[in-house]
Structure formats: C-alpha cells, structure tokens
Amino acid sequence: MKKNIMSKTHYAYNFMRTGILNGTFGPGQRIVIDQIAKELGLSIIPVREAIRQLESEGLIQYKPYSGAIVSTINETEYVDTLSVLAILEGYATALSAAHITPDEISELERLNEQMKEALLAFEFEAFGELNREFHCVIYRKCDNQYLKEEIKKVMGKMDTLRRSAFTFVPQRAHNSVEEHARIIQMLKEGALFEDIEKMARQHKLNTASALRNRKASLFATKKNPF
C-alpha cells in the first residue's frame, strides 16, 4: 500500500514539475489540488505529497487565501539567487574534486563539447540544460548531503524562470565554455581546494554579472532611447 501511494506521488510530482518547467503552469498560477487529482485519476493525498516536494524545491509556495501557487521570480531575484548558487557550487565543486574519476572527467569534456555544438546552432535552451548537467556531474560527488540538498533547492527556485540565462546574454555562453575547460583542467591537475573553489564560484558570479549588466544597459536605454 505504501509503495502504491509513493508511486502515485511520484506520478503527480512529475506531472506538476514538468508543467511548471514547460510553462503549462505559469508563475503565480494557483494549483487546484482537486482538479489535478481528477485529471490524473488520483486521490488528493498523493497530490498533496507531491506539492510538498515541489514546495521544498522552491517551485511551489503557499500564499494566504490562495493556497499553493507556482513560485514567481523576477530578474533581480534570479541574479541574487544565482549569486547564492555561486557560493554553494564553488564549495561543492572543491569538495567534489578529490572524488572525481577519469571517466567523469571524460564526461565533463563530452558535455562541454556538446555545449559548443549547441552554441553554434544557437540552441540556448539546450545549452542551458547541458550546462546544468555539467555542474551536476561534478557536485553529485560531493560528500556533504546537506550542501547538495541546498543546491537542489536553489536550482529549483531558479527553474521557475524556465529559460536559460544564456538566452538573455548569449556572449556569456562563449566565455562559460572556456571557463568549463579551465575547471576541467584544474580537476585533472589536482589543483588546490581554495583555487578550485574560487574558480567555480567566480564562474557562476560571471554569469550573474553579465545578467546584471544587461539589466543596467536596458534601463539606460529606456531612459535615453536616442
């Protein structure tokens, strides 16, 4: 019975998470438990459990008088969240370095090559997915479970934007690939903990800075259109 409930919860979780990430459920949209349950042919219990999971990942939040709604995030929040992720991922990357295997190094190189191909094809959504996978390959080797859970939560918060940051700052994508190559080389060479942490942290902060500069440029253009 418990296994059956868990499988139904996972089904509801996947349905709602996919809907949030592909835009079926938009930011601020109310999640009606009864409606979801009816659509999936489930009772409300697994749907509620799935909503709790999504809330823990930052994709859903509860608001007074509204109940469960899809989390919203604006560009300022996105940049701020990315800055937090820079600190977390920098430390996680450094912790993971000692446990990275040659096979995983090869996987990182393969992913970075695929990112180059996506960039040449102007497929920024695919580029963003590959970028995320690249970093996941590294920090899944981190032996600090709490740190990994926090990273997952922050990434879930960022997912509510549902578009790759590189869509907004395509030039940053070129630099990101080059920085990945440097991170891979540092992992190969067994660089110092603090050097790896600094490089991985700065890598994310560079994306945050590119987005921040883009926003400032757009604001200046609106003030002085000619």
From TrEMBL:
Keywords in alphabetical order: DNA-binding, Transcription, Transcription regulation
Record SUPFAM superfamilies: GntR ligand-binding domain-like, Winged helix' DNA-binding domain
Gene3D superfamilies, alphabetized: GntR ligand-binding domain-like, Winged helix-like DNA-binding domain superfamily/Winged helix DNA-binding domain
Positions of the HTH gntR-type domain: 6-73
UniProt KW NAD keyword: no
Key word S-adenosyl-L-methionine present: no
Pfam (any one): GntR
Domain of life where this protein originates: Bacteria
Name recorded for this polypeptide: GntR family transcriptional regulator
Organism classification: Bacteria, Bacillati, Bacillota, Bacilli, Bacillales
